[in-house]
Amino acid sequence: MSDPKIIVALDYANAEAALTMADQIDPKRARVKVGKELFTRSGPQVVDALVKRGFDVFLDLKYHDIPNTVAKACAAAADLGVWMLNVHTLGGGAMMSAAKEAVGNTSDSPILIGVTLLTSMDKQTFDQIGLQGTMTDTVVRLATLAKNSGLDGVVCSAQEATPLREQLGQDFQLITPGIRPAGSDRGDQHRTMTPQQALAAGSHYLVIGRPITAATDSMQALLDIERSLED
Ligand SMILES: O=c1ccn([C@@H]2O[C@H](COP(=O)(O)O)[C@@H](O)[C@H]2O)c(=O)[nH]1
Predict the structure, then answer these.
(1) Which residues are known catalytic residues?
(2) So which residues are the signal peptide here (predicted)?
(3) Domains in the chain, ordered, with CATH?
(4) ipTM score above 0.90
C-alpha cells in the first residue's frame, strides 16, 4: 500500500502499550498518531521509537499559543522526525505563518496542518462558546485562513470534506478523526462518518482510535476497516 489512508490513534497511557500495538501494525499499511495522553506520559522517546520502527508519525499536540512559542515548539517537533504535526487554527494567521516558517517548506519538512473545529463539537457547544454562523462555514473560514497562512491542510470532520475540497482544492490535505465504522460506539464524537463515507466525501487520511484500540481484537478491527475501503 503506497499511501496508507488510515492513521491509528495510539491513545495509550504508556509507551509499552503503544509499542505493543505498533509492533502488530505494518508501517506500510497504516500510519500512527501520538496525542496528548501518550506524549505527556512518555515524551519524545516514544515518538523516536515509532520513527525508528519505520512509521509515519502524526504528532497531534494542537499547538495554540503566541507565535514565538508555537514556532519553537513546531521546530522541536520537526526535529523529532515526525511526518505530520498540527497547530490550532484559532491561534490565528500570524501564529500559523510562524509555525510554517519554523518547520520549513522542503520535501523533508513535516506536513503542517491546522485543527478547525473539534469533531467532538456539536452545535450546542459551538453556540455555548459564542461562535456565529454555521459550523460548516466556520470550518471553511478557518481552513481558508490556514491555507492562506501557508499550512498544508486541516483537521476537520469528514462531514466538511466535500465543501473544503470544492473551495480549497484537491491538494489541501483533509485529515479526519471522528471515524466510526457502522454500528460502532460514537463515544464523545459528534460529527462522525464511516471510513467509506469519509473517503468518498474527500478525506485524505482517516484518524481512527477506539474503534481499533478498544476492540477485543484490534488487528481484526483494523483489517475489517481496510477491507471495507477496498469494496
Ligand atoms: O477534531 C479532532 C481532533 C483530534 N482528534 C483526535 O483523534 C483521535 C480520535 O480517536 P477516536 O478514539 O477514534 O475517537 C483522538 O486521539 C483525538 O484526540 C479528534 O478526535 N477530533
Answers:
(1) 60, 62, 65
(2) none
(3) 6-230 (3.20.20.70)
(4) yes
Specify the pLDDT at position 185: 97
- The residue whose CA has the least distance to atom 4 of ligand 1 is 177
Does the annotation place 62 within a ligand binding site? yes
Assessment of whether the complete model's pTM goes beyond 0.90? yes
CB atoms under 10 Å from CB of 138, counted, come to 18
Pocket of ligand 1 (CB under 6 A): 9, 11, 35, 115, 118-119, 155, 177-178, 187, 189, 207-211
Give me the pLDDT at residue 34, please.
99
Q: Which residues pair with 63 in a beta bridge?
A: 87
Q: Are 145 and 93 in contact (CB under 8 A)?
A: yes
Give me ligand 1 centre to Cα 67, in Å. Answer: 24
- pLDDT average, residue stretch 50-55: 98
How much is the average pLDDT of 144-165?
Answer: 98
Supply the pLDDT for residue 2.
76
Tell me, what's the pLDDT at 173? Answer: 98
Going from the Cα of 35 to the center of ligand 1, the distance in angstroms, rounded, reads 9
CA of 48 relative to ligand 1 center, distance in Å: 22
**CA 105 – CA 102 distance, rounded (Å):** 9
Cα(1)–Cα(215) distance, integer angstroms = 24
